[in-house]
Design a protein that fits this description.
The protein is built from eleven helices and twelve strands. By secondary structure, the chain is α/β, with parallel strands linked by helices. The chain has a six-stranded parallel sheet, sandwiched between helices. The longest helix has 17 residues, at about 15-30. The N and C termini lie far apart (about 55 Å).
Length: about 325
């Protein structure tokens, strides 16, 4: 008789925001079966973040940017763990293949209508429909019902101490991997100036790889109301977000970090759907132009004027007023 504790593997490689959105599903599975070991395979850039999830098991780095020549070695390693089930929370062909080569008895994924790449479904031994769930967090929690997990509470158990009272700054994140998600830098600068005038708060501008010039453009347009953050790691962003009075950003990883640690948010959406990808706290505010966008979920706009540019500074200032008042 095999009496060892169950072993599960979550596949969610990236991106940063999507990894954060997968944490509640992992937390629900860990909470459901406290004897089980829940491992996670993820892009190496996000290993340190996933390692902070309380009671997570092995965090296994896998970099698809290095090519798939390492897949055989990874398959051998995963098969040696003898997982009872692998859960693909990503829904791409690459993640589905990786889930299947782990050799578990069960390879679980979404039904094809809920996959970004429908061909991924052929690699699952079973598929599950998340029903009427809209947000990706809720979809992930719904997929866990395949393992009899009924938890619906959104939790981010990152081993953090209680949040201190917010500091005297606002976080602004002007960058995004998709150019189509970026609000103009000069408007972020004007926004920072308005926040200083109305609330006496300075703004700290985050920037990532190849975004230092973008942060400088925001600072230059702020009439001294903003300053660029120093170079940051993901864990640094966690700390900065926890201390911030407010976060203002497009649909990209740092805004989801802010949501995970409870920082109030005003988020700006163009080609992506706020109800699916945005902040999950009902107190947070999303300003969206998704309904008039002609290039949904495309990295680059097919027009000369991206739909997110239709959002005015005055509209964001008004949203900031409402979100600050809601604190």
């Amino acid at each position: 008789m095999n009496d060892r504790a169950p072993r599960f593997l979550i596949v969610r490689l990236g991106s940063l925001g999507d990894v954060i959105h997968a944490i509640p599903a992992a937390a629900a599975l860990i909470h459901h079966d406290r004897e089980a070991r829940v491992d996670w395979i993820v892009d190496p850039r996000y290993v340190e973040l996933v390692q902070r999830v309380e009671r997570i098991g092995h965090v296994i780095p896998f970099d698809t940017r290095q090519g798939w020549g390492t897949l055989v070695a990874m398959a051998r390693r995963l098969r040696g763990e003898r997982y009872d089930a692998v859960i693909d929370l990503q829904g791409l062909l690459k993640s589905a293949v990786l889930a299947r080569v782990a050799g578990a008895r069960r390879t679980i994924g979404f039904t094809s209508t809920h996959l970004r790449e429908s061909l991924a479904s052929v690699f699952y031994t079973e598929t599950h429909d998340p029903g009427d769930a809209v947000h990706v967090i809720d979809k992930g929690l719904a997929l866990m019902r395949a393992l009899d997990v009924q938890e619906t509470t959104v939790r981010f158990p990152l081993g953090l101490s209680p949040r201190d009272p917010p500091g005297g700054y606002v976080l602004i994140n002007p960058g995004a991997a998709w150019p189509n998600k970026r609000w103009p830098a000069e408007r972020f600068g004007a926004l920072a100036a308005a926040i200083r005038e109305r609330h006496g708060l300075r703004s700290v501008v985050l920037w990532g790889p190849d975004e230092e010039a973008l942060a400088k453009a925001v600072v230059d347009a702020s009439t001294g109301a903003a300053q660029a953050a120093p170079p940051t790691t993901i864990i640094d962003i966690v700390a900065l977000a926890r201390g911030a009075h407010l976060m203002i950003s497009g649909d990209t990883g740092p805004v989801h970090i802010a949501g995970a640690v409870g920082t109030p948010i005003v988020a700006l959406f163009g080609p992506t759907r706020a109800e699916r990808n945005g902040p999950w706290s009902p107190a947070d505010i999303s300003i969206s132009r998704f309904d008039r966008c002609v290039c949904h979920y495309e990295r680059r706009c097919r027009r000369d004027w991206p739909c997110i540019d239709d959002i005015s500074v005055d509209e964001v200032v008004a949203a900031v007023e409402r979100r600050v008042a809601a604190r």
